[in-house]
Every structure is written in C-alpha cells, then in structure tokens.
Amino acid sequence: MYVSRLVRRIAPVFRLCHPGLQRDLDRHGRGMITATSKNEAMIEPCRRPLATSSYQYSPLIKKTLSIKDKRSRPRFAEDRKSTVEPVLAPDEAKGIVLRPSTPEDCRAIYKCLLAHAEWEGCRDLFKITEQDLIRDGFGANPIYQCDVAEAHDESGQTSIIGYGLYTFIFCAWDGRSALWENIFIHPQYRDLGIGSILLHEVTKRMYALGCRTVLGYFDENEIGLKRWYVAEGYESITKKHNFHLYMQSGKKLERYINQDGKNDEYLSKASSRGIHIKSIISKND
C-alpha cells in the first residue's frame, strides 16, 4: 500500500524529467517539458520556472541557490535590506526634472549608490567616498558623467529620486562609445517608467556627443533587469559575439602591479634577439 502511494507520488516527477516528453502545464503545475532533444529536455525544468516571477517564492529554488553560493548577494527581494533615505513622497511631488548632476548633488548620489549596494547585498564591496565622486566627476580630469532625476513639490522642496551614472570609452572598431555603470530609481518611484525615460534621454545625449555604441552589464540573476534591457533594445554581446568581460581589482590587482621581475623573462628574450625594450610610461599622470 505504501509502495503504491509512493509510486503515484513520484510518477509525475519522473514524467517531468524524462527526456523528450512534450507536455503543457496541468492544474497542478506538472508536465512542464516542451523540448524534444535529450539535452534540452534535461535543462528545461530549470529554465522554465526561472522565466516566471513565481520562481523566487519556490523553497526548493531558494535552497538550491543558497547552497550553491552562500557568499553571493541576496537573490530575492524579501532577503534584501537597504538604508535608502526617505525622499519627497510621490503623492506630494508635482513634477520631476531630469538634469545633469552638479557637485552639490554628490552627497545625495553617494547615498543612493550606498543604498543600491546594500540592496544588492554588496555593501562590503562598496569602497568609494563622496569626495571620490566630486573629484572624479567634477575635478580637473572627470572620468564619469551622471544625470539625475529630481522630484519637486509646490513649495520648492526637492529630492533626488534617481540617477544614471555612465562613462565614455573608446572602442577600437566603433570609436567613441558609452558604458552604463549604474541606473537607480528610489523604490517609492519605481514602476512609473522613470528609469526608461532616464535611459532614453541620456542615451540621446550620448548619441549627440558622438557615441555610436552604448554598453551595459548586469547580474545574470536579475531576470527582471535583463527583460528591461531587452525591452529597451539592448542585446547580449555574449550570445551574439561570444564576448566576455574580465577584470582585476583589490588585492589581486595590487599583487599584479607589484610583482618584482614580472617582465624580466620577456625583456631577456627580446634582448637575446637584439631588441631592447624601455618603458617611459609615466605612473603619475
């Protein structure tokens, strides 16, 4: 009797995971396989739940992800915390102005950046200061641009409720390009389309300044953010061109630049062929 009940309980699971089955969802949520090839059928049960918003409430999915990488940022909204400061309430705001940032905005931008890092679960990776923003955005050699969304009420009170931070880069094939570093909208003002408007307006400015390519990146676990970028016309260059982004930072970068004799082997090899290499690249500019 017990064996019979057990078989009835595991049979739907077996049918779900069996390669090659083609079934639609029934009222119990079973039979999600739609692929016909063996490989596709094996990965489909993992792919299909992640394509819907219900995946984040699945205890099995949450447990699996937490076991896989306990050090990664929280992947689910209910696990995230942020100390984002209160701003002018949406029902009190009479208008929102999108404008270039000023040095006086850096304190508010810094607080938004910090809140975003906390929301992403990456507070320990947040290293910059308000002074860094002022120096690198408004100093003698600015290396980033930032436009803000500012809400205001009838009395003239204002609050920065979002920003778009980006840099200009040079592509060896396309020339001047722009890279989105961060777009943030205060939680109270989300789902109003402000992020899309900001993205569009700033992109028009990038284009007017000569950029013919605009890049961005995001965490692959941010399913909603991925859909947003795709809806705005972005495409994955990883899929299209098989490009990958690499980086060095922190202690690893320090070890790399401070390696004694790092180039001795290469210098000797060139010297043995009568080629003498000398670097006059300044380290202070």
From TrEMBL:
Belongs to the acetyltransferase family. InterPro entries: Acyl_CoA_acyltransferase, Diverse_Substrate_AcTransf, GNAT_dom. It comes from the Eukaryota. This is N-acetyltransferase domain-containing protein. Keywords: Acyltransferase, Transferase. Residues 96-252 form the N-acetyltransferase domain. It comes from Strongylocentrotus purpuratus. One of its GO terms (molecular function) is N-acetyltransferase activity. It holds the Pfam family Acetyltransf_1.
